[in-house]
């Protein structure tokens, strides 16, 4: 299983100062733990530079506002703190997890005066991969749970509570031998995966669901931009499962997934091909070039 995440050696930025990894703790009666008043980001550093750091910090602040609290640090301060964590831990290629939550002064649904905390952790996560191996594509099933109606949840926040059904769905998929699960929306249309956005290819064009009940990911936006730079048309629209027979390629995007081809979703088969391979290469070049430029 590897080293337990509470036993990693290093430092974590916690409420404005660097603390030893083992000391970055919260009380058991923390509001964020009991009532999911917690927002976070998933980010990557390449070559010692956090990719699209400011966009992530802006989204973190916006997510907190949606959950009715204000993170007591500016976007620039959060950006600087993330870079400090990367530098102090000597992590040129890393995954970062900024997280903000309500503290433990009051235990109950209503806790408007609780302290808002912010922490930033990072750990080693090499970005290099074998393109030939990745191009085989991952296998996915269809999740039992659906993304809820955005009138019932704060869908545009990257909030911890919204990932409960993702964890359940991914565990079930893995037990069945799959890598992930595709989630439908509350109408039964294609939405996303448990932690990544999804794209399909047909006749040289890319199709992807409208992001109105799930996050329009930062990696998703990067992939769309890269495709359009290549002159590939990207169509954001409603997609129903019955259409999946007509798509030739499928890939997912996310901070962890980067650009990952899909070979199978339940009974639907895909052949990872030219567009998936091109976007994998373009995304790798994009993030690596940003890291090298920052180091220069």
TrEMBL record:
<dbReference type="GO" id="GO:0052656">
    <property type="term" value="F:L-isoleucine-2-oxoglutarate transaminase activity"/>
</dbReference>
<keyword id="KW-0028">Amino-acid biosynthesis</keyword>
<keyword id="KW-0100">Branched-chain amino acid biosynthesis</keyword>
<comment type="pathway">
    <text>Amino-acid biosynthesis; L-leucine biosynthesis; L-leucine from 3-methyl-2-oxobutanoate: step 4/4.</text>
</comment>
<dbReference type="InterPro" id="IPR005785">
    <property type="entry name" value="B_amino_transI"/>
</dbReference>
<dbReference type="InterPro" id="IPR043131">
    <property type="entry name" value="BCAT-like_N"/>
</dbReference>
<dbReference type="GO" id="GO:0052654">
    <property type="term" value="F:L-leucine-2-oxoglutarate transaminase activity"/>
</dbReference>
<comment type="similarity">
    <text>Belongs to the class-IV pyridoxal-phosphate-dependent aminotransferase family.</text>
</comment>
<dbReference type="GO" id="GO:0009099">
    <property type="term" value="P:L-valine biosynthetic process"/>
</dbReference>
<keyword id="KW-0808">Transferase</keyword>
<keyword id="KW-0032">Aminotransferase</keyword>
<protein>
    <recommendedName>
        <fullName>Branched-chain-amino-acid aminotransferase</fullName>
        <ecNumber>2.6.1.42</ecNumber>
    </recommendedName>
</protein>
<comment type="function">
    <text>Acts on leucine, isoleucine and valine.</text>
</comment>
<dbReference type="InterPro" id="IPR050571">
    <property type="entry name" value="Class-IV_PLP-Dep_Aminotrnsfr"/>
</dbReference>
<comment type="pathway">
    <text>Amino-acid biosynthesis; L-isoleucine biosynthesis; L-isoleucine from 2-oxobutanoate: step 4/4.</text>
</comment>
<dbReference type="InterPro" id="IPR036038">
    <property type="entry name" value="Aminotransferase-like"/>
</dbReference>
<dbReference type="Pfam" id="PF01063">
    <property type="entry name" value="Aminotran_4"/>
</dbReference>
<dbReference type="GO" id="GO:0009097">
    <property type="term" value="P:isoleucine biosynthetic process"/>
</dbReference>
<keyword id="KW-0663">Pyridoxal phosphate</keyword>
<dbReference type="InterPro" id="IPR001544">
    <property type="entry name" value="Aminotrans_IV"/>
</dbReference>
<dbReference type="GO" id="GO:0052655">
    <property type="term" value="F:L-valine-2-oxoglutarate transaminase activity"/>
</dbReference>
<dbReference type="InterPro" id="IPR018300">
    <property type="entry name" value="Aminotrans_IV_CS"/>
</dbReference>
<dbReference type="InterPro" id="IPR043132">
    <property type="entry name" value="BCAT-like_C"/>
</dbReference>
<dbReference type="GO" id="GO:0009098">
    <property type="term" value="P:L-leucine biosynthetic process"/>
</dbReference>
